[in-house]
Amino acid sequence: MTPTLFPSVFTIEIGGIPTVTFEAKSLREASEICDAPWLREDFASAHSNGAPLWDGKAQLRARMGYEGEIATFGDASKDAQPSDGMLLVYLIELDDNDSAEGSEPSLFTQQG
Known about the structure:
Helix content is 27%, strand content 30%. It is an alpha+beta fold. The chain has one domain (8-110). Strands 5-1-2-6-7 form a 5-stranded antiparallel beta sheet, with helices on both faces. It has a two-stranded antiparallel ribbon with strand order 3-4. The longest helix has 13 residues, at 67-79. The N and C termini lie far apart (28 Å). Residues 100-104 have low confidence and may be disordered.
């Protein structure tokens, strides 16, 4: 019998900077999300302080979320609208014209 895995909160770092938190069932699943074309496109097109979040070269690395990041995700997820997509909570402030609405923490739901 395979045990049921409950989602945990993970963080993706861009070039060593904690950038976004989300839920996944395992570190393997979280790491696979780093390679998702939609996420890479979002990171390349989103900006913080006028600079792109990702230059296409910096390492994207998933890891278990730290206590403060988990709390931030929990607080933000309470305010999120119900959705079938993946909830991404940005840990950095995005510029106002980006898809996560420029608030800190920023919410963005990716439809899967």
